[in-house]
Design brief:
Distance between the termini: 56 Å
Mean pLDDT: 78
Shape: elongated
Strand content: under 5%
Low-confidence stretches: 1-7
Bound molecules: zinc ion
Oligomer: single chain
Length: 72
């Protein structure tokens, strides 16, 4: 009945225990390999950002910097 949110319970990739930072070169993952996998995912996400906007997002984009122009 006790949930520790802040404390890392395990590797986000494989769920194995994560060693302390000084000796764990893959921190906050269990191993450098898992860290690499996460990094690869991040890079893939970067490329996949270009997607059609939702209606809400479009409204935000249009409403940002439009109409209100102050010269200072
Ligand atoms: Zn792992």
């Amino acid at each position: 009945m006790s949930a520790r949110a802040s404390a890392a319970s395990g590797c986000e990739m494989c769920g194995r225990p994560v060693g302390p930072r000084p000796e764990n070169k893959g921190w906050p993952f269990c191993s450098p390999r898992c860290k690499q996998v996460d990094l690869g995912r991040w890079l893939n996400e970067e490329y996949r950002i270009s997607r059609p906007l939702d209606e809400t997002e479009q409204a935000e984009v249009l409403g940002d910097g439009r109409g209100e122009s102050s010269d200072g």
